[in-house]
Design brief:
This protein is an alpha/beta fold. It is built from 13 helices and 23 strands. Helix content is 32%, strand content 26%. The chain binds flavin-adenine dinucleotide (FAD) and nicotinamide-adenine-dinucleotide (NAD).
Length: 466
């Protein structure tokens, strides 16, 4: 076996791992990154953020061409779905970006090893795969991400009953798709297949969709999705799902829901969350014990053991690509310079449905529970010139500000390009801005961002256009 030496070795090349590797190289360290699959970029680039957004964008345009172009004076005839073409667009998008990470590794002189990484003991990692090597490094960063969580009784066959990866590549539009879980994946990929023509039934265990997000915003979202034809069954406890039928022609799925009639459908998308991935990682060799939810416990500097750090989906916190990236940077800056920090109060979350749903900071429910006095300003997209010109007037911006100091505590947006609008208020929270600061900042006219400004004015009861 080849013996190698580096300053720092990262296990996993997702947004946490590859960004940590590049930043560490920028800081002058000799860096290696071990990835078990041939493509770099992790869940996010290969089977997560990027392919799902490629399908969300393409399916939305198809849907618009079919349904709303005529409202703005464009006549189109013979709009047809070319599903294989759409899937090729998704695959091309992924390929370009994963190749881009390989280019960045070369540019930054990050040495890539292809194979499974396993910690052998303090300061040593074994690579087992196409390449076999023993790497000695003072610092080991674990960035092994997460995998789809199963559900007892749901028999995933990797085809008809699967998770998000299967739902990114169905070979035909399912007649009836049952989605288990009304979270990020269920709503995004449920929307994709609904737009392409499936009947979509979403089964959610709780009495609401999007748990953890602001309740008023989630309720508005559910109303909109219902109008789009998504069927919701809330309070639905799924007890099993199986494939029936002995030939491709008569194959179908049966989903069992506690206290209700079984549902027959063509495909099932299980989207009840993801679990940290730590299989065969050799954690015991450095004395790391997982917490009750299978995550690697870390301290404020992402340290899990002496010389061993962990970031991204494999540790606590929201399972989001930008959170993993921010942690990757803070972790290696801490290693190289002694200081690195992530502000968990200012990490936005975006659901890329149509309209998009975006939020940052505290929800109203969290503020009430903490007994924080707050003021609220809301403004609808329906009163915004740009939204009208776009023909996308659904939704609102809601700003929650501390009643005594006016500091912005939380912002919740549902509406066109909410995912881009949330950046301004994320910076506001990061800088400790007040709603008055936002209200007095000039916002270009006519833009969707004016809805943010008006919501900030509304905190003080002085919105102009409503
Ligand atoms: P990952 O991206 O999971 O990368 C981990 C990597 O480690 C993988 O490549 C894996 O092969 C490798 N690995 C694991 N174990 C080993 C080992 N022992 N040796 C070598 N390699 C190993 N987040 C967003 O912020 N925005 C979105 O729009 C978004 N959309 C998503 C859509 C879907 C369908 C899914 C499933 C997720 C989405 N996410 C999104 C979540 C996002 O993908 C994750 O939060 C993010 O990828 C986590 O990054 P990570 O670096 O921690 O791990
Ligand atoms: P999720 O946590 O977002 O949603 C899971 C949903 O399943 C919840 O509503 C939950 O109440 C429900 N649920 C749990 N058990 C259930 C059961 N037995 N029956 C019915 N419903 C049940 O998880 P996800 O949608 O699988 O996504 C996983 C993670 O990936 C997300 O939490 C997010 O961190 C990340 N992700 C992010 C994006 C994005 O940023 N746009 C997109 C996709 C995924």
């Amino acid at each position: 076996m080849e013996e190698q030496q580096h300053d720092l070795v990262v296990i996993g090349s997702g947004p946490g791992g590859y960004v940590a590797a590049i930043r560490a190289a920028q800081l002058g360290l000799d860096v290696a990154c071990i990835e078990k699959v041939p493509e770099l970029g992790g869940t996010c680039l290969r089977v997560g953020c990027i392919p799902s957004k490629a399908l969300l964008e393409a399916s939305e345009r198809y849907h618009e061409a079919k349904t709303s172009f005529k409202k703005i004076g464009i006549k189109v005839q013979g709009v047809e779905l070319d599903l294989q073409g759409m899937l090729r667009h998704k695959d091309r998008t992924v390929k370009g970006l994963t190749a881009g990470v390989a280019y960045l590794f070369d540019k930054n002189k990050v040495r890539r090893y292809q194979g499974h990484g396993r910690i052998e003991g303090p300061g040593t990692v074994i690579v087992d795969g196409d390449e076999r090597a023993r790497i000695r490094a003072r610092h080991i960063v674990i960035a092994t991400g997460s995998e789809v969580a199963g559900l007892p009784g749901v028999e995933m066959d990797g085809d008809r009953i699967g998770g998000s990866t299967e739902a990114l590549s169905y070979p035909e539009v399912p007649g009836h798709l049952v989605v288990i879980g009304a979270g990020y994946i269920g709503l995004e990929l449920g929307s994709v297949w609904r737009r392409l023509g499936s009947k979509v039934t979403v089964l959610e265990y709780l009495d609401r969709i999007l748990p953890g997000m602001d309740l008023e915003t989630a309720k508005l979202a559910q109303k909109t999705f219902k109008k789009q034809g998504l069927k919701f069954e809330l309070g639905a406890r799924v007890t099993g799902a199986r494939v029936e039928g002995d030939s491709e022609e008569n194959k179908h799925c049966i989903v069992e829901v506690d206290g209700k009639d079984p549902i027959a459908c063509d495909r099932v998308l299980l989207a009840v969350g993801r679990r940290p991935y730590t299989d065969d990682l050799g954690l015991e060799s450095v004395g790391i014990e997982l917490d009750g939810r299978g995550r690697i416990p870390v301290d404020g500097h992402f340290r899990a053991a002496d010389g061993v750090f962990a970031i991204g989906d494999v540790i606590a916190g929201p399972m989001l690509a930008h959170k993993a990236e921010d942690e990757g940077i803070a972790c290696v800056e801490g290693i190289a310079c002694g200081y690195g920090h992530v502000n968990y109060e200012a990490i936005p979350g975006v659901v890329y449905t149509h309209p998009e749903i975006a939020s940052v900071g505290k929800t109203e429910e969290q503020l009430k529970e903490a007994g924080t006095e707050y003021r609220k300003g809301k403004f609808p997209f329906a009163a915004n010139g740009r939204a009208k010109a776009l023909g996308q007037t659904e939704g609102q911006v809601k700003i929650l500000a501390d009643a005594a100091t006016d500091r912005v505590l939380g912002v919740h947006v549902i509406g066109p390009r909410a995912g881009d609008l949330i950046a301004e208020v994320t910076v506001a929270i990061e800088f400790g801005a007040s709603s008055e600061d936002i209200a007095r900042s000039s916002h270009a006219h006519p833009t969707l961002a004016e809805v943010v400004k008006e919501a900030a004015l509304a905190v003080d009861g002085r919105a102009i256009h409503n």
